[in-house]
Recover the amino acids of this structure.
C-alpha cells in the first residue's frame, strides 16, 4: 500500500490506529527503499554485477534476519517482565533477563533464525567504519574479541556466523565480499 492511499484512508475515517501504524511502517519502508537504492548506486560503478548482487543480497539478508531477531527479542523482554506471562522471570532480574535473551530456543520456537551478536545489524552498523586492526568486543552471552579486518571481512564473518548457528542455512549463503576484496572501501 502506497503512502497516498494511506493518507486517503486517514481522511476517509478508517481505523486510525491501524492506519497510523501502517503509515509509519510505510514511511519506514519508503526510507529504507531510498537508502538501499542510494547505497546500491554507490556500489554499482565499483563492483562487477556478478559481485554486486551477492553484496546487496547478503546485506538484505543480514538486515532481514537481524530485524526479525530484534523484534522477537523485544517480545521476549516484555514477556520476561510481565507477571501474567508464562516466561515471567521476576521483578529484580535484569541479569537473568539478559542471559535468557541470549537463549536460542526462544527464537527458534517461533521460527526466527538465531543471529549471533557479530551478525546483528546494530553491531554491523556501529563497527562498519572502525580502523582495520581494531579489536572489537562481541557480547554473545559471553564477551569475545574480534579483530576487525575491514567491512568486507566483517560481512563475510557475519554471514558465516549466521550459517554456523542455523544448520538449515548450511551452504545456502553466498559470502558477500570474497570477489570484491579489491574494493572494500565501497562497502563502508
Amino acid at each position: 500500500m502506497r503512502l497516498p492511499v494511506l493518507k486517503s484512508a486517514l481522511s476517509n475515517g478508517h481505523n486510525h490506529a491501524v492506519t497510523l501504524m501502517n503509515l509509519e511502517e510505510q514511511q519506514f519502508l519508503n526510507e529504507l527503499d531510498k537508502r538501499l537504492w542510494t547505497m546500491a548506486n554507490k556500489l554499482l560503478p565499483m563492483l562487477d554485477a556478478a559481485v554486486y548482487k551477492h553484496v546487496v543480497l547478503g546485506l538484505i539478508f543480514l538486515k532481514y534476519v537481524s530485524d526479525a531477531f530484534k523484534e522477537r527479542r523485544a517480545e521476549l523482554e516484555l514477556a520476561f517482565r510481565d507477571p501474567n506471562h508464562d516466561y515471567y522471570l521476576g521483578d529484580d532480574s535484569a541479569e537473568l533477563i539478559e542471559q535468557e535473551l541470549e537463549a536460542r530456543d526462544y527464537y527458534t520456537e517461533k521460527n526466527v533464525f538465531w543471529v549471533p551478536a557479530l551478525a546483528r545489524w546494530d553491531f554491523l552498523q556501529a563497527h562498519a567504519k572502525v580502523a582495520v586492526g581494531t579489536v572489537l568486543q562481541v557480547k554473545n552471552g559471553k564477551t569475545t574479541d574480534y579483530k576487525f579486518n575491514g567491512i568486507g571481512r566483517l560481512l563475510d564473518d557475519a554471514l558465516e556466523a549466521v550459517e554456523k548457528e542455523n544448520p538449515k542455512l548450511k551452504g545456502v549463503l553466498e559470502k558477500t565480499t570474497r570477489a570484491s576484496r579489491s574494493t572494500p572501501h565501497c562497502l563502508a
